[in-house]
Amino acid sequence: MPGAPRLATDSVVRQRLRARADAMLDKYLAYLGGVRRRSAHTLRNYRHDLGAFFAFLVDMQVEFDVAARSHGRAFLAQARDSDVALASIKRQATTVRAFYGWLDREGLLPPARAGDSILMLRYPKAPKRLPHFLSTDEAQALVEAPDTDTARGMRDHALLELLYGAGLRVSEVTRIDIRDLDLANRQVRVTGKGERTRICLFGEPAHQSLTAYIERARSELVEGAQPALFIGREGARLAVRTVQEIVRRSGVQAAIRSHVHPHLLRHTFATHMLEGNADLRVVQALLGHASADTTQIYTAVTKRRQEALVSSALSRAREAERRDTS
Description:
Layout (H helix, E strand, L loop, with lengths): L3 H31 L5 H20 L9 H13 L4 H20 L30 H8 L7 H16 L3 H5 L6 E2 L4 E5 L5 E5 L2 H18 L18 H14 L8 H14 L4 H8 L4 H34 L1
Antiparallel strand pairs: 1-2, 2-3
């Protein structure tokens, strides 16, 4: 039969490659179990993941100890194309790299080609999800949810207006002192990531609610000298967890169906700013993003929303045209 000797030779080669790989895998697992005291569950995962990688190398007729990063990336790409969960692909990459790190420490790896060492294998990054945001009606309902007939309600109203109106992080809003606030110019100095300070602007709704809170409610919540703008229990600075609960509770009161949290208001601020044709660099500065790439994701959100609005409008127009011609 033509080609049979070649097939037989290929089969022998594959058996030899797999036998070598499996023998080294047994040594590695013995090391993990005996020296590193890894659990039986962990050892099973390592055997499964490395066994899959060795099978991939055998199909390519590549010796396990000369595999390069390019082989590892091809293996991970195959897993991704087979709809393997990203968490599993990440685990596989980590397992493969750990195995080859052990081989390297044992002096069992030959020199790799520059830039193609399997020790440099990295798992693929998760795709960035477009941030969720509130509609303008939902945002308004949220900030108006607190009962402003009480001191705490006035505080919560001012807090929500500032979170939404200035796009602040929850950690930033809790660190604001009275001296950081410039009501006359509608701006506030905040300390963000990396202890970087920046000036944030806010609109007239936040200005009015902050003025009312400071003039009529804050003194009921604090006794003595307290620099914090927003006051919590026993006259102390409002805690992050308390802010999260205020936002969550207000979302329930506003009948917003999605989970509402402080960062959602930051997403909403950025999206609404860009929908209002604000310059990307301005939004970047207001949000305190070190790179415009981080802010760029919100342009995808507004583009998606605009496409949906256009599609809806065209559908309505076509429906109206069908009714007129029927």
